Amino acid sequence: MPELQGRLWLSRPEAPVVVIPPRSVHNVTGAQAHLSCEVRAVPTPVITWRKVTQSPEGTQVLEELPGDHVNIAVQVRGGPSDHEATAWILINPLRKEDEGAYQCHATNVVGEAQSHSMVTVLDLNKYKSPYFPAPNGHM
């Protein structure tokens, strides 16, 4: 609950809470995948996207995005309400190696929160129907 100090309303600090978590996505190679995450916190949180992978030794690795990926874009904006922020990640074009777990991670001075979603990629080249040429004279 806000407090009145002089003529300023101050809000009590609150750790981040994921209000709307990202949904898992299924699509084919060459298409695009879009994830979004909405977080509330006081002060407004910093939101980052990470891809969750495993090292050869089997430990969890969090790769901050977009990193070096030319097919990944990340955007964060304030709102839709006070002390909320919304973050998006767009993967375009989608490649088989983009498949995996993605984490929306929010942090502020009070704490942190995260939520995960899965991106499943079907390799379109594996499932294309075989090419049958048209009979002579029929096109």
TrEMBL record:
Protein's UniProt keywords contain Lyase: no
Entry-linked Gene3D superfamilies: Immunoglobulins
Keyword Secreted: yes
Pfam families listed in its UniProt record: I-set
GO cellular component: extracellular space
UniProt main location, coarse: secreted
UniProt GO BP: regulation of cell growth; regulation of signal transduction
Annotated compartments: Secreted
GO MF entries: insulin-like growth factor binding
Keywords carried by this UniProt record: Disulfide bond, Glycoprotein, Immunoglobulin domain, Secreted, Signal
Annotated ranges, domain Ig-like: 16-120
Protein name in UniProt: Insulin-like growth factor-binding protein-like 1
